[in-house]
């Protein structure tokens, strides 16, 4: 799975073909986004990052919708999933967003709900505890038996796979993690919550990201091929 480099500004884009999803990867500190507060404390940095994320997301979606970025209105479902609203509320364009550290990932598809989750690789001293709390017993036993740094990386793989499935479904993590069971190397769906209607049609794909990043893409209606594009300046 190769990664295509795309320079700013993002020009008009054709929507992804059936069976494909565009995955956009951007490092916010590398982008000329003059938005948000300029202070240096943690709160101001986080707020600035959120403003930049929303700014980039609107510009990206506008490229698909064929309109100015300021015309793109966003809202959230009752369970917090971002979605188009206003004049584009009935658009078949579907998207999902994830961020970790300085990195932002956006998945875009047509007519199929998508979920994406991204994590920056890092040591997780509490990985065994987190595995026992959030993963299936079989996954947790496997994770606990690994050595670092492999253990932290594999936990993040299992975690991003779960998160992407939950985000594609558009529901919260609470109450469903215990019913999700995945295979590993690579993560694959073994069992999903019984109250997820149409769960048998869900799919999961590992994303071949640059070194230091781990991520997965999930869809609700059959497998799609991720087309990864990285923003460059």
UniProtKB/TrEMBL annotation:
Protein origin, superkingdom: Bacteria
- SUPFAM superfamilies associated with the record: 4'-phosphopantetheinyl transferase (SSF56214)
* A molecular function (GO) term: magnesium ion binding
Domain named 4'-phosphopantetheinyl transferase is located at 113-177
Q: Which GO terms describe its biological process?
A: lysine biosynthetic process via aminoadipic acid
- Using the record's annotation, list all stretches that form the 4'-phosphopantetheinyl transferase N-terminal domain: 54-108
Gene Ontology cellular-component annotations: cytosol
Name this protein carries in UniProt: 4-phosphopantetheinyl transferase
Species assigned in the record: Wenzhouxiangella sediminis
């Amino acid at each position: 799975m190769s990664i295509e480099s795309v320079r700013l500004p993002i020009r008009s884009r054709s929507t992804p073909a059936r069976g494909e999803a565009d995955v956009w990867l951007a490092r916010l500190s590398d982008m000329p986004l003059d938005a948000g507060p300029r202070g240096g404390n943690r709160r101001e940095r986080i707020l600035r990052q959120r403003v930049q994320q929303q700014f980039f997301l609107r510009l990206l979606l506008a490229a698909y919708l064929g309109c100015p970025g300021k015309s793109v209105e966003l809202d959230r479902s009752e369970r917090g999933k971002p979605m188009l609203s206003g004049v584009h509320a009935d658009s078949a364009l579907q998207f999902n967003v994830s961020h970790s550290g300085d990195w932002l990932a956006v998945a875009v598809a047509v007519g199929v709900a998508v979920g994406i989750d991204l994590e920056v690789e890092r040591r997780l001293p509490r990985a065994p505890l987190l595995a026992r709390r959030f993963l299936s017993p079989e996954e947790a036993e496997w994770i606990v038996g690994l050595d670092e740094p492999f253990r932290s990386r594999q936990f993040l793989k299992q975690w991003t796979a779960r998160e992407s499935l939950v985000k594609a479904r558009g529901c919260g993590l609470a109450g469903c993690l215990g019913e999700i069971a995945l295979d590993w190397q690579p993560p694959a769906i073994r069992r999903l919550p019984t109250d997820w209607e149409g769960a048998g049609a869900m799919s999961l794909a590992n994303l071949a990201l640059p070194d230091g990043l781990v991520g997965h893409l999930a869809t609700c209606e059959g497998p799609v091929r991720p087309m990864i594009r990285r923003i460059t300046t």
